[in-house]
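QUALITY CONTROL LOG
STEP: pairwise intake check
CHECKER ROLE: data steward
CRITERIA: each record must contain a sequence immediately followed by its structure tokens, with no blank fields

ENTRY 1 OF 2
RESULT FIELD BELOW
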Amino acid sequence: MKKEYKILVLPGDGIGPEITKATLEVLKAIEKKYDVKFDIKEGLIGGAAIDETGDPLPEETLKLAKESDAVLLAAVGGEKWDNLPTDKRPEKGLLRIRKELDLFANIRPGKAYTALLDASPLKENLIKGVDLLVIRELTGGIYFGEPRGIEERNGEKVGYNTMIYSEHEIERIAKLAFEIARTRRKKVTSVDKANVLEVSAVWREVVNKVWANYQDVELEHMYVDNTAMQLVRRPKDFDVIVTGNLFGDIISDEAGALTGSLGMLPSASIGERYALYEPVHGSAPDIAGKNIANPTAMILSAAMMLDITFKMHDAAKDIQDAVEKALNDGYRTADIWQPGTKKVNTDEMAQAIIEKL
């Protein structure tokens, strides 16, 4: 009997339906090659959900998400819904599904493809061979800490926020980082500001405690300011970076920008029970419906789903290798096209990747 996995697909807005269609074609090829069955259901989120139901995250979508093994999301948002109240905008659907599924870890790869080295702002000798992962704590830290507010003190306005982490929040993100590092190059860099912040002192202490169970993995601690510098100076030295919400927000964008091809970046948001996979890029409404969007980031997000949630490590690597081979053969969508390469549309890029599978 075939192994079966339930996937909720959320095409969303803008280029979402096009890159979703391309990604599902790749998953069909994986079904055949690995003799598995993907039971795919489709749901509404973002602007598409607002148009249909008036809610950026309908209850039906949430129900389907909780009944699935993983959620694969394309993109939400667009000018069409910009004038709606903040709590009714498409992005609220994305924030709410992350919260409802308790997705505490965001995982962002930063991989430099040999065929796209020219796109990086760094010199080739620095960026070539970079393959790192930033794991950012997503549901705690200064973005959610209390007390917070704006008030008047001594005749002037004061804004304040609280950076706070409890032991269990740090434990679960550290454990995830070490588990993932075991499947890679077995090195974790924990990023904090323990020389200044008490919350970081606790962070470092708990990470060390968790590391006791992962002695086969190398651990280094690094202050966030130094990390920002070393990512530019010697990015190849990093494997898995784990850090809190605020530092992770900044570091993951820096790591992604190093490769110079933001349209290629996948991501995962992981919880104790649920997981959601999505490309880093937005909905690009200006090119929606033209079949010219780059589907690679969503295809690579599906590869992360196979790897992390379904433990289909070989299938995930097959997709990653197929993407690299297609790029090496010169296939490019408009966003990464350069003279001398083959400009292809969304469907053609997907087909080029499938052929390499």
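ENTRY 2 OF 2
RESULT FIELD BELOW
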Amino acid sequence: MKTFYLLSTLTGIFIFSLIGQGCQSGKKSNKQANPSEQTSSQILQIDDLLGKAETLNGQEIEAEGVCTHICAHGGGKIFLMGSNDTQTIRVEAGEKIGSFKQETVNNIVRVKGTLVEDRIDEAYLAQWEEMLKSQTAPKHGNDEAGCSSEQKAQGETMATTQQERIENFRKRIAERKEKEGKDYLSFYHIEADTYTIL
């Protein structure tokens, strides 16, 4: 009788250990078999993207954020926000997209494309002033200063005219040159190939 109980107990322990190993190996294989978990780490949140932008310039990236604005003139641009409105990046529709759908606004949007640096230096500002004088400067937004979403994405102090924006850029360039020795400002946008509304 004692032998029967001992044999039953050992058999039970053996069976439970097999079941436990089966469950653990099943968990491991599920993690390996789920490709979305592996690729989700490659999708950058806007805050992370902006923090690494200098090192990612010119590279193909995938990022997601909340779409706060779409360009009213043809839907060629959207703005994606991260943790707050100071963490915003412009996304331009590439040739494959053409224009963004109005439904992107107020939704989480994932884009895939190339990160592009936009430099603002004195030559850029002088050219902008010339276009203002000749009245050939492109119009963005609904007022004289241009698109407020663009201004937020570039960390600008809100201006009422384009000339005021130019002067604000000059001040920021002078401050950067004094601190870092660089006589330009760098901003980034994404030239998107694909996008998905999540």
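INTAKE CHECK: passed for both entries
DESCRIPTIVE NOTE, ENTRY 2: Confidence is low (pLDDT under 50) at residues 1-40.
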